[in-house]
Every structure is written in structure tokens, then in C-alpha cells.
Amino acid sequence: MQETVATLFAESGCRLEDSLAVRLRECCLNGEWDLALHIVGKMTPYVSRSSLLSIRVKLLEEKFVELLTKDQTVQALRLLSVDFPSHGSFAERRNFLATLLYVDPNNVDVYAKTGAHRSRQERSALVSDIQQLLPTSVMLPPCRLEQLLKQSWRMQARDCYLHMAERRGPSPEFILEDHQCSWEDFPLFTSQVLSNHQDEVWCAAFSPCGKYLATGAKCGPTLIWKVVNGRTIEPYKSFGGNQNTAVISWSDDSALVAVAAAEDPNTDVHVYDVHKGAVYCTLDNRGNDNTVLSFFAGSHPYRLVCADQKGHFCQYILSDNSAKPSGKFEGYRIRAIHCLKNGTVIAADTHNRVRCYRFSDDSDQTLIQEQSQIISFVVDKTERHILIDTKLHGLRLWDLESATLLRSYTGAPHHDFVVFSTFGGAEHSYIATGSVDDKVHIWSHKSDRLIAKLSGHTGKVNAVAWNPVYPQLLVSCSDDSTIRVWTPFNADNP
């Protein structure tokens, strides 16, 4: 054993705690205050004077309270007048302790009034406080090995490109070899094929609560699905008639869903109450085309922003059977929008720019200038990153705060079609999109590494959506009129 310890010392360059620190810890836990004070006095060569003074005050307070509870008032008075530091920074504390000389410890809990520690278990907190004042070369931080193991686990989980189990803690094996999830944990298996739509399925969006899915098609009603568990979805509601549904947006409380059509000047924007199964309100949108829309989060009454490529860009205040305009921007031809939690609207226009707009003060600012036409974009849940689908350069990931291009993702051709991409998985660490090659493409958020291509559709994949609550649940919709539900082969219900 000693040889093993010596080898560890030699290889790590570290040694055990200083022997004085070991004795100090044990004395504090046992309440041996005189001996603890004696040990502190021996630490002068390698601990600063101010730290030693602070430690000494903590120990003297503990001894003072113990003397009071033992009815040794004279000794307690001597401690304050002789042993307690006379430094001005401790004067107020000493005056407070002096007032306790006049109380009856049988009637007043002096431990509670001073914050002193009564038992060995409580004194562990005192040891932690003292450790903060000592160099790590003298006394190790508490649970240091456990902290290092947790850091190692988090690093290994972050580097695992298949890590999907957000709730899974470290297993003993990660000490012996680097952690790597198996493909069994990844959503590669089609658990359901939903064929309720009778035409090309154009869009899909999960509700923020993760319990519902909305899908729209080239023709036919907007369908609402209920997420039964981590691998099963079933029909819930149906809205509308034969108009197409090209864009879907959920309210933050998952109660309303707004839908807009594409290239249909005779169709309004409809907002539906999902649970009542009825129209909540309608926005006059006739004469506009390619409308995009987004709800503000946490807004009551509800606020919905609509825009299009004809220069209409307006905010609406929604109530039952009513939608009142409340601010607008003129002259911007918008292709995609997203409402941030801070009240800002992020919008992409026909000049290949991503700009931010604030209806509260009518301000606007350019954030990103792309190199080619922007087709669409999606913002992650942290609102730090934006994934932009460009016509010539594929998918491009930007940092919204610094307006910095982080990386590009290629290999999933979209051509001129609108394809809705998504962030998802545990901690939103993956990016998924559809393609004209009939496949779903998945990358790691932190690199441009293509992880998987999911086959099964027989037509262009128009949208991919990742469930915000079930990180192993993914859906895709296609020109083949189907919705595919992707899960791990042996997905369990959370």
C-alpha cells in the first residue's frame, strides 16, 4: 500500500494533506478548541496572517459559546478581553458576543444566535469554512475526488457524439475506459408511420410542453397529435378544411396553434384553441402570400407576429374572436421570423439579412449578413444559436450574441425548397433536417460530423421536429404523405 501511495505521489506531483491540516480537521470535528488554536498557531510559515486571523476568530467564537453553555462566564469574559483579536474589523463582532454574557443560556439558544456548531455533524460546515481560508496545498477541498470524477464524467458525456440519456448518471465503467453510448440509445428506428394526411405533409411542430404535435399538408386539415409516451403518437384534434398549411407556431403555454397557408391570397391566418377544438380567432391575411408567424413567449394576452414577402410585418394582440394590430414595420420582405423571450423579433429578409426588431420602441438592427439567399432558420432553446438554411451554402450555424459563424453543415440538399430543420436531443446537442434525397440527416451540434441518415420516406422530407421533452423522439414529414416517428429500438417511456 505504501509503495502504491508513493507511486501516486511521484506521478501526480501531489501529496497528502499537511499533517497539521489533518489534525486541525479532527480537532474541529471533536470540538477540541484549545488544541485547534494551538495547531493554527503553527501554520504561520505557509498561511497568510489575515487567513490565520479569520480562522482564529471562528475557533474562538466556538469556544466562547461552549463556555457560556457550561456556565463558565468568567472564562468567556477573559476570552473576549484577552484572546479575541483587537483588530478593528472584529470589533463589532466582539461587542455582539459581549452582549451574550448577560443572557441565561438555559433560556436563550446561544448556538442559534451566533451560528456556532453544536454537534460533530454540524461542525463539518465549520471545517468547510476553514478550508476556504487555507491553501489547497495545506487542506484539500471537501469531496475533491468526487468532484474530479463528476467533471471527468461530464467531459466524457459531452464528447460522446451519441449521448442521448440526459438523466443517466456516471457508471463505474467510465473510470476504466472512456464513455461511449451505443447506437441503441439513438432514434434510428421507425416506431410509427402515420398516414392520416392525404397529400404532401409540409410542416410539423411539437408544442413547448412536448405533449402535442401539429402537422400541416398541401391540402386538408391541420392535424393535432397527442404524444402518448416516448415512442407513440395518436390523433387528437383536426382543424380547418381543404386549405394548405405551410407554417405552424405554438403559443408558449401549448394552448393555441397558429397556421398560415403558402401562396394562397384567399386564405386568412387561423389561430386554434387546441383543447377546445375550435377557432380562437382569425387574422385577415387575404392578399398576402408566404406568411410566416411566431408567438411571443410568456405573453398574456397572447401576442402573435406575422410577416410576408410583400412588406407586411405586424404584431397582433389576440383575444377570443379578436386580433388587434399593435405595431408594425414597413417595407421589409420577410422570409422567416422567431420571437425571443426578451421581446425581440428575429427576422430574415430577402436581402439575405437576419435582423432584430423591437415593437416596444420601433427599433431595428442587422445581426447577420448571409452570403446567399436565406430560405428559413431555427433558433435553439437557449436563444444563443441560430441555424440558417441558405440556398447556396447549406445549413450554417451562427452565434447570435457575437454574430459569429460557427460551422456549416453540408450533404443534405434542399435546392429551392423550404425545409424545416430542428435542434434537439439531450441539451439540444443535435441538428436534424430533411432533404430532397428522401432522408433525414442528423449532425452533432458541436461539430460538422454527420451522425446518421435515416431512410424510410419515399419522397422529399419537408420538415423534421425533435420533441423538447422526450430527447429520443423525432418526427419527420414528407411528400409521400406520411409522418414517421423515430425512436431508439428499445425506447422506454419516461
From TrEMBL:
Biological process annotations from GO: proteasome-mediated ubiquitin-dependent protein catabolic process
Keyword Repressor annotated: no
Superkingdom field: Eukaryota
Each WD repeat, start to end: 194-235, 454-486
Keyword vocabulary terms for this entry: Repeat, WD repeat
Gene Ontology CC, one term: GID complex
One family name in Pfam for this protein: WD40
Keyword Calcium: no
InterPro entries: WD40/YVTN_repeat-like_dom_sf, WD40_repeat_dom_sf, WD40_rpt, WD_repeat-ST_regulator
Identification of the protein by name: WD repeat-containing protein 26
UniProt organism field: Ascaris suum
